[in-house]
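User: Study the shape:
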Amino acid sequence: MRYKFAVAAALLALAVAPTGAQEWPAKPVKIIAPFAPGGTADTLGRLVAIKLTESLGQQFVVENRPGAGGLLGSEMVARAAPDGYTLVVSGVASHVVAPALNPNLSFDPLKDFTHIALFGGPPDVLVVSNPTPARTLAEFIAYGKANPGKLSYATPGIGTHGHLVAELLQQRANFKMEHVPYRGAGQAVGDIVGNQIAAGSFTLTSASEHIRAGSMRALAVSSPKRLPEYPDVPTYTELGFPELVTVTWFSLSGPAGMPEAIVKKLNAEVIKALAQPDIRQRLARDAIDPEPLDPAAFVKFIEAETKIWVPIAKASGAKAN
């Protein structure tokens, strides 16, 4: 009789026990995209969310929380419960560059997060509005030198990778533009298309549709070689700026202390999602080549990127929003 009671008690305990890593996800999962709709973080977050919803049987919902180069949305996740139900589209802008520009940062971009999986990212592209007279990068630089204080360029915000690439270009080419930071790429790209601002430095994902439509012109791209989709757009390297070979990478992270089983499951599912043919085809359009890293290798990748970009960010003299 005691044995029967013991078995019954054990079964009851399992029935009322809190949901653990084995049952995760037992409810919808929120993914914070810390940039405005229409940018690469938003696009990649939604592509991955659709696949995770399909494979894991719960809704993965993307919520945009832009501001401060990705810091506002990232801070929300750093403070969230580490139960796997609040995640963030992290990346080089929000977890490497913007933190380096903010002396009052409320979180540690490494220690206060569980870094789960690398998405990869597109190269950056320098674009100009159609009325802008420069047809090449050399002409653009010459125009900037001949018209000091008159050339402005847009980015998705202070501390974004597009901002840093443009700042490094100005240092190397010895000319100056006025930086106009936006709260995300969507409005900034729209203002270039609408001829409200002369130029912009964005991810290729943010600008690709308008480049293909002819509503803005691309002068240079930060890929190591010319892209098949854009054979007429030269690389920074071939134009004399070999240090501007880079991508704006994005990733998936959560609060520090997430259960290892959930982290491993998410890592495997993200890698599987990014390998699916329809996703590969969509990413190839913007020259994004996913890199399947396990969580430990991904953390080492972030540490290496931090060593490269933090000194450059600080040397740029830029200040956080």
Observations:
- The longest helix spans residues 295-315.
- The radius of gyration is 22 Å.
- The chain has two domains: 27-121+249-315, 124-221.
